[in-house]
Amino acid sequence: MNYPVWQLEWAGGGLLIALIAVFHVYVAHFAVGGGLFLVFVERKALAEKSASIMEYARKNARFFLLVTMVLGGMTGVGIWFTIALLNPAATSSLIHTFVFGWGIEWVFFACEILSLFLYYYTFGRIDDKRHLILAWIYFGSAWMSLFVINGIIDFMLTPGDWLVDRNFWSGFFNPTFWPALFFRTFLAIMLAGLFGFVTAVFIRDEETRHTMVRYCGKWLLGPFLLLLATAWWYKKSLPVDLQELIFANMPELTVFIKMFALVSPILVIGGLLMAVLRPQNIRRPVAGILLVVGLIYMGCFEFIREGGRRPYIIRDYMYSTSILKADLAKVQAQGVLKSARWVVSRQVTDENRMAAGREIFNLLCLSCHSLGGPLNDILPIAQRFSPSGMNAFLASMGKANRYMPPFAGNTEEREVLADYLTLGLVHNVPRVKPSIVDLDVKPYPYTPDAEYLLAAWALDGMSFTSNPEQSGLDFSPGHPKIRAQLIRRGEAPELMSSEIKISYVVTVNGVKAQGEMASSDGYFQAELPELANVQQPYHLLELEASSPDGNILAKTRVMVAQSSEVDCNHCHGQDRAAEKQGLSRATAANILERHDTRSKTALKARFDKDEVIVCASCHADSSRDMAGSERVLNLSASIHGFHAGYLVDQGAGACSFCHPTAAQGASQSLRGIHHNLGFDCVNCHGSLAEHSSALLKAESAAGKARAAQLLKVVGETSVPVDSIVARVPWLNMPDCLACHIGFQPPETDTAFNQWTKESGQIFHNRLGEEGTLFCAACHNEAHVLYPARNPYGAKLDVQQPQQYQGNSLPLGANRACKTCHKVDMDYEMHHSGSLADFRNVPEEEVGRVGVEVKEE
Amino acid sequence: MDFRTLIPSPDVLQVHWAWFQGLLNVTFVLHLILMNLMLGGVLLCFVNQLRGSTSRLDRFVIGKIPFTIAFAVNFGVAPLLFLQVIYGHFIYTSSVLMAWSWLSVIAFLIIGYYGVYIYGIKWEALGKARGFVSGTVACSFLVIAFIFVNNITMMQVPETWLRYFDNPKGLLLNLGEPTLWPRYLHFVLSSTAVTGLALALYGDWHIRRGDNEKISIRQLGLRWFVGSTLAQVGVGLWFFKTLPPEVRSFSGSLPAWLFALLLSLSIIGTLLSIVMALGRKVRPAAVVILATICFMVGVREVVRVQYLAPYFSPADLPIAPQYSPLLVFLFFFAGGIALVWYMVRLVITGLEVKS
């Protein structure tokens, strides 16, 4: 906020600091351990009175001088220069907090230089005792340099009590000071052995060479167990939340943790090989390789330590964006463009939108991301997102996405940045509005005198498919199902089932599918084949009920929806034109890659072998009777719980990232009366955070640890998580009677947190109080309650009311008892209030059959 | 846009700013001397090669350079540290504006450092390539000096910082700065002068012990010193003329007499040292030059305060007192000096015993 941003592009994302720092730290540790090595090699030469070992000591000292003094010393200054360029605010903070620490380090640096020069240039020119004292002074100074720097470096990871008292010593002797000091000391000693190999293999005298290589091997292997022990101590000294973050919740660090673990035995084996093998043509390359392996070892450690600080540069004090934690709320309220100094676009206008986005990008992204570079390249990330997906992702930062700092701008700036990243920085194809045309479907003619009434409805008005055959990934909640009830009309209507045959036929993409519904106790049911059409999700089924002798008793039409509008590509990328919908293979591949990274699975490899990955094979999904694995979350809890943290504060908008409910989408699956009255998903299911919390609580209660982790990051809920009632998916559903208490007009608009307790209470299974008719027979499916309005045609979803009543109201509404009974009735046998006036008559229905004009 | 709004807010100090200013001045004087020896020494070797000299003086000089580089860098770290404490918000900013060249200092330093080692160790084998090697090293160090002069001037002219918005990739320099070239020449000439004086001191030391073969070295050293310092008089005048009128006329916050006094002492010291050198009074000249460098460092700091006076005064810096780290630092600082003294004695007595 305070300083200009060095607009590195390719070389951004920490590449410079990684290159210089890893190299410097490697040499600097060698400079410490190597100092002790100088002492002991000279003592060995003296003790054994070996001129050849003494000659090795001298040559090794020259190598040491050239490497540590030039490369070590200069790159040390280089790190200082680099951090001041990349994060001046943090550097300034470290300089001002520890100026006298740096000063002390500088004193020891000076002593190091002098003692090393004197040591090297007095070889053989002063007596042994004095010469050894110089070596000891060198080592002491070098180790004290490490002592001081260690305090400051570890302060950045664990500032400890300094956060409260701002005391120099609290920050310096921070919680990881001692374990890190010992860890680094043992590492330094090992590196002395590693570097010692490089000089020892060039000793001319074979016996001395062999002796010294083995001696170096002892330096490499000797402290190894102590190194591991201090590494464990180091880890244990980290605050618990930091340990969890580094070792469990930061998949980006996994590779370095793995590498560190992998390289440890390689160093041991390499050291043993060096000790055992004598041939020069093996030893020399092995010595060189081990030196590189050591660099990788050091690099992994540094990446873990540096990465573990994320999203801070000084933990719990300053974010990597240079914004102080204490200032974040103020910056968010004021806006980053108004808070930062080095900004041109203080206000966002239509004209400067992209330029302002770039400035926000410079301020908030460039400190960690490169543009097209080898480290943290933002381009492939941006390519995965739609503007709204990116906007949601930005909002998740600091919450679900804990290794990134919270977005430090206001809502408008977040949208501007999302647009810049996805439309300005990369040119993702903007989504085009789907073309929704009237399907011109007419219901069967109004036949008030028909003998039979065939009521039919889909069990799920929101059905979607992940197009497994196309995408290779299957998380669809099973094929669509329809149910029907056939009623013989009369004063006492009769429910027909035995020996009646009901067949259906539907045409999708020119292909006809047909079948017969299975008869059950008082109703008929069928599971349909996949219906999804990539262009539009609605399909008209023709139903025909016939008697055993083949007489057609009744015909009707019912609309069945199965949408492929599963917009994972908002965040997971895609490889096709924007006007298409349906999960693509590229999107599925990205989802599986992320899953593999986060959950340590190997799904992508199977996917690449053309296997269709079925989520429910591990994540239980009762909508399709798959038990999954006992250890992992059920699909609903997992998929909602994971994404909740990424789709925060979006209301029902969060749902339409994945479900076909978007107001501008191709499906617009919410089309029943509640939607028409202005309700959305949240009224019944709660926000995504609340919905997820309910699902996760059930899984947590079942002992699944992952659920408890996710519960921490689902985002804010309107009621405390403790008071959210746990629910099992597909069983504990929003209960209609939560609002319509006793079937009466509701006094609340929130059904969230009052779930059905058993299968029979779920709306599509619930029967009227007479015990024979399904609620849905008269009202239609829960998301498509009559009078429903379908974007592809006003009468699409009201086939039966139109056919039997001449209007779009629920069957029997407004006392249309004749629809089944042929006569008026005066007893509310289906449910209380069933003879009352229908309260929410749509304007276009006024004047139709059975819908009188009300006079106020 | 008003460039004043770009100036970052400073961080909080732990002790009074005068502590840092004092430490800055002391360590910077030492850095200047070492840096002058390092650059001047390399230039001397290069000129020696250009002239086709057959003397082995360059070999003697180059052998001492690694030592001066190591300490020039070490003694550069300290003043840069203390400078950042007082003026961090200015120098971090100017550094970012010229980030690539600022960072390249490290690369040039490593090239120069290894070049010096190669020159010294492979002196025989290099033969005529010595000119190339010493030229490369000299160029590296001259470039470093140029980059430093750019940054140190750019940090005190925030009015030039708006250029960032046209060039945010760290590729700026401060080439429009009127004092840039005279300031640069001032430092280059002082390096040859100080190196000349150091050679003269070396020659003088031997001559005093009866080694008259070193007369030519003393002569050479004094020639370099006098020539450079005479040229410095002209460059100094040029430098002074290019200073902004408000800095020159001294209308800022510090008392005018301080500037006048320090500047006068610097000029007197310079002229006096020339006179002494011409009279072959090497040691008095060295003492005078040391004092003059101290005065010049004072002038430099005063001028910086004047440059920044419209926007900032070190006295404005907030302080949250914590004196124990300072005390511990002073303890180690004194201990370091004692350790250096101990090591030097250890080696000198050791050499005497051995011989």
Structure description:
The complex is a heterodimer of chains A (856) and B (355). With 856 residues, chain A is α+β, with helices and mostly antiparallel strands. In chain A, 46% of the residues lie in helices and 8% in strands. In chain A, helix 1 (15-47) packs antiparallel against helix 4 and helix 15 crosses helix 18 (411-425). Chain B is mainly alpha-helical and 355 residues long. Chain B has helices spanning 17-50, 57-97, 99-121, 123-126, 129-154, 180-208, 215-242, 245-248, 256-278, 282-308, 324-354. The mean pLDDT of chain B is 95. The chains are: A alpha+beta (856), B mainly alpha (355). At the A-B interface, helix 2, helix 3 and helix 4 of A face helix 2, helix 3 and helix 11 of B.
Mean pLDDT metric of chain A: 92
Q: Output the radius of gyration of chain A.
A: 36 Å
- The backbone outline of chain B, from C-alpha atoms, is globular
Number of strands of chain A: 13
Oligomer kind: heterodimer
Low-pLDDT segments, ≥5 res of chain A = none
SS field, number of helical segments of chain A: 30
Largest interface: A-B, 67 and 71 residues
How many DSSP helices of chain B? 11
Average pLDDT of chain B works out at 95
Q: How would you summarize the topology of this molecule?
A:
The complex is a heterodimer of chains A (856) and B (355).
Chain A: H1 15-47, H2 51-86, H3 88-121, H4 128-157, H5 162-165, H6 168-172, H7 177-200, H8 206-221, H9 224-237, H10 240-247, H11 251-276, H12 280-308, E1 312-314, E2 318-319, H13 328-334, H14 336-339, H15 353-364, H16 379-383, H17 387-396, H18 411-425, E3 452-458, H19 468-471, E4 473-474, E5 481-488, E6 494-496, E7 501-508, E8 511-516, E9 518-519, E10 524-527, E11 538-546, E12 552-561, H20 569-572, H21 585-599, H22 603-608, E13 613-614, H23 635-644, H24 673-676, H25 681-685, H26 688-701, H27 705-711, H28 775-779, H29 799-805, H30 818-821
Parallel strand pairs in A: 4-13
Antiparallel strand pairs in A: 1-2, 3-5, 5-6, 5-10, 7-8, 7-11, 9-10, 11-12
Chain B: H1 17-50, H2 57-97, H3 99-121, H4 123-126, H5 129-154, H6 180-208, H7 215-242, H8 245-248, H9 256-278, H10 282-308, H11 324-354
Helix pairs in contact in B: 1-2, 1-5, 1-6, 1-10, 2-3, 3-5, 5-6, 6-7, 6-10, 7-9, 9-10
